[in-house]
Model the fold of this input.
Amino acid sequence: MGAGEGLLTPSRGGQRLTTPSLLGLPLAWLGVFFLAPIAIVAAYSFDVYSLFPGPHGFTLAGWRSVAHDHIYLRLFWKSAQMSLIVSAIIVVLAYPLAYYLALSGTKRKYILLLLLIAPFLTSYLLRVLAWKVILGNEGVINSFLVWTGIRAPDHPLSQLLYSRFAVMLVLGYIWLPFVALPIFVSLESLDRRLLEAASDLGAGRLRAFLKITLPLSLPGVVAAFFFVFVPTLGEFVTPSLVGGASGYMYGNQIVDLFGAGFPDWETGSVLALFLIAIVAVLTVVFSRFLQPRQVATD
Amino acid sequence: MDVALSRNGAWVLRAFFGLVVAFLYAPIVILLIFSFNNSDVPSFPLSGFTLHWYHDFLVNGDLRAALGTSAVIAALSSLGAVVLGVLASIALARRRFRGQAAVAALLLSPLVIPYVVFGISLLLLFHQLGVARGVPTVVIGHIVITLPYTILVLVPRLEQIDASLEEAAFDLGASRLRTFRAITLPLILPAVLSAFLIAFTTSFDEYAVASFVIGTRPTFPIYLYSALRFPSQLPQVIAVAVVVLVLSLTVVVLAEAGRRIAERRVPLERGG
Done:
């Protein structure tokens, strides 16, 4: 470690801030409170540790039963579909917003950008709460429909709240502002001279968009998709508040297995580790789109 | 002729942008309206103006205690995350060492871990160690999840600052620590403050991880979550929601404005 460091700068006894002394504390913190806990989850999933006293040894029984129990896999697939659809829709919605901010030449683009992403920086739970108030059977939409006489009082739109639709609407609402950000950054760094050259060479705007703007902004689009898909895949707060039975997601299953009712920490650990594995694979696959300002490179 | 947008295209996009912004703010405005509505249920027709719900939450001891707990947790964990983040960011931005990419990846990896999994992992760790759950265990978890945010704010700022300033101070005989105090810290101070703010607001709002490792003293999000299950508390919660949303929007705008002004005052670019 610290290659070349000692050559360029003279050492001054105890006052040097060496690379290990800079990184020691952050890495130790993550080692003890981030990596070790995940290792313990792995130990539970192999029944090396257990909630119940008694002798325990390494076994794959938990993994085998999850692999054969289609309930969990089906639930995972359902959650994956829900977050895929949400992520795809809001990326498509956010693209024109980012395009407008980055390329329309508006002078107030940073103010408008702040206007767009500010809701994302406010309380998550309170934004879910707002939709609970809006979508409920006696909520804002239904009471408004009854009040204006569009619907009879005893026939509310009952599938609004506690449904898969409600979960996806709220997740989309929560993540939409955030998605615009990476797309905006990639469009913002686009060299407008490329578009001028295309125009000079006779390409129309649509053609220039398809051949130049879209391909060059694709890394931002992919990053945006990734940063919504991953957190929504393991989501459990929104479905537990607005999802009801039909909006139940994989994350809720994990929570319930560690809950007070019928705890099954072994199965829960298998499901948790499976989710980490999926996220890790996705991260590696997407990693070349996710270089945050070259933090990881030199 | 504009190469990116026709005039009609610009008009359509502007209208779409307006619609989306309206969609984003409508729920917040609806909460605002119903926080002043004189009825136990938030539904139409509106039945009169009241400040009753604001008064209710001001005198609600449990709620104030929860806000206090969250403030303490957010202050401690953002402080911890910023200290660790400054150390790690200096190493990432100023040093070259073997395994740098792997170290950076590890430091940023809490960004992608599903919070439900991280919460459960911490729960199992503290269970295994026999540590009682409470405010300190939440702080520990929140430092982990806010650390990457501080690094993402600090590293770009450090990379903007000309490293030769630090080298000059060092060559003139200042110690490493003195160089840090006299040169580096003042230059990155705006970024340190915004890292602190981001970590603070993230921690203050965090429910998922906290729900697994908090003991009997609820944080504000945990209090909110349980209050959402009792309809009788709803109007009060809406009033709190409005206060918190308006406050956090104000902080966001002020922080952004402050960062702009601060960075304009210190326009030191690398290179030259």
Summary: Chain A has two domains: 20-59, 70-289. Chain A touches chain B through 101 residues (CB under 8 Å).
